[in-house]
Amino acid sequence: MNTNPKNILLGVTASISAYKVCDLITELRAENYSVTAVMTEDAHHFVTPLVLESFTANDVIENFFSVAGRKKPIHIELAKKSDVILIAPATADVIAKLSYGFAGDVLTCTVLATQAPVIIVPAMNDKMYSHPATQENIERLKKRGVIFVPPIEGHLVCSDQGMGHIADNAAIRKAVHDALAKKN
For position 10, what pLDDT does the model report? Predict the structure, then answer.
């Protein structure tokens, strides 16, 4: 068990595998991590804020105005508070936005404002994952120090088998542990 609680900001994007973060949150909290979720707008189609709030025991940040009464910009507060930013699942869209420095929502703004390690866990169709644009975006982010937990071969929602299935929780948790160990 982690005896020094760390804050994990969990970015949840619009992937069918978003439902899998509930088990991941449970496992991270069992290791004494505090988890706060930030959802992209389209992530709501796959998992609800209430579900994430129930698992994290923290407010879920949906947009810049999610939590009333804030005096400071939410993305700056999150960036400063987070020991690790973990984006799981990460869509090709979010990877592209981060690769080019777009900051149109709380998640992308927070990533641009943070000094914490950023871990991205892609989950998408195998053709999308292997597309040259996606691979170039991943390489660009890796050059900036972003950590990737690659997808695995598995069943995809389109009924195909391929490389694009979200990594298992053990691999994701290992990346979190390794990033925190390097940070300290």
Answer: 98
In sequence order, what DSSP letters do the residues of 117-129 get, joined into one string?
-EEEEE-S-HHHH
122: left (phi over 0), alpha (psi -120 to 50) or beta: beta
- Rounded to whole angstroms, the Cα distance separating 95 from 122 reads 8
Residue 151 CA, distance from chain mean position? 14
Strands 7-12 and 34-39: parallel
pLDDT tens per residue across span 52-67: 999 999 999 998 776 6
Give domain status of residue 1, yes or no. Answer: no
Give the CATH number, domain containing residue 74.
3.40.50.1950
Active site residues: 158
